[in-house]
Amino acid sequence: MEDTAKSILESEIPALLQSKPELAKEINAVIHFNITGDQGGTWTLDCTKDSNWVQSGAQGTPKMTIVVSDQDFVKIRRKQLNAQMAAMQGKLKFKPMDMGLAMKLGKLLS
């Protein structure tokens, strides 16, 4: 299976949350992923729910929006790109910047 932002968001992250429901409880927020590039799109991660965390499209009011290219998102997930470095280089943007929430999300993505 080819790595795409879609496969990570729609398959890997829900599987991870299924196995570690405490991560969802810790994040406990609605987050929009605005993925740019050829295989981009918008997804909503809703960690206020007990299941069905990821939806396609922008649902509800997010506590934070993450903007990143499809390629960089896959690299971060595959540990080929450090998320903190990506953020410092402007490749990974958090709007608004909520350091605490960003750190919790880091656990989910790395």
What does this structure look like?
By secondary structure, this protein is of the alpha+beta class. The chain has a single domain, classed as Nonspecific Lipid-transfer Protein, Chain A, CATH 3.30.1050.10. The protein is 43% helix and 24% strand. The protein contains five helices and five strands. A five-stranded mixed β-sheet has the order 3-2-1-4-5. Strand 2 (41-46) and strand 3 (54-56) form a beta hairpin. Helix 1 (5-19) packs across helix 2. It starts with a helix and ends with a helix. 26% of the residues are buried.
Round the Cα radius of gyration to an integer and report it.
13 Å
Write down the secondary-structure element order: HHEEEEHHEH
**Percentage of residues in strands:** 15-25%
Helical content (DSSP H or I, runs of 4+): 40-55%
- How many domains? The number is 1
Largest sheet: number of strands, sense, barrel closure: 5 strands, mixed
Q: How far is the N terminus from the C terminus?
A: 19 Å
CATH class: Alpha Beta
Set out the fold topology.
Elements: H1 5-19, H2 21-27, E1 30-36, E2 41-46, E3 54-56, E4 64-69, H3 70-77, H4 83-88, E5 92-95, H5 99-109
Parallel strand pairs: 1-4
Antiparallel strand pairs: 1-2, 2-3, 4-5
Search tags:
5 helices; 5-stranded mixed beta sheet; alpha+beta; Nonspecific Lipid-transfer Protein, Chain A; single chain; globular; 110 residues; 5 strands
Short note summarizing the structure:
The protein has 110 residues and is of the alpha+beta class. Helices cover 43% and strands 24% of the residues.
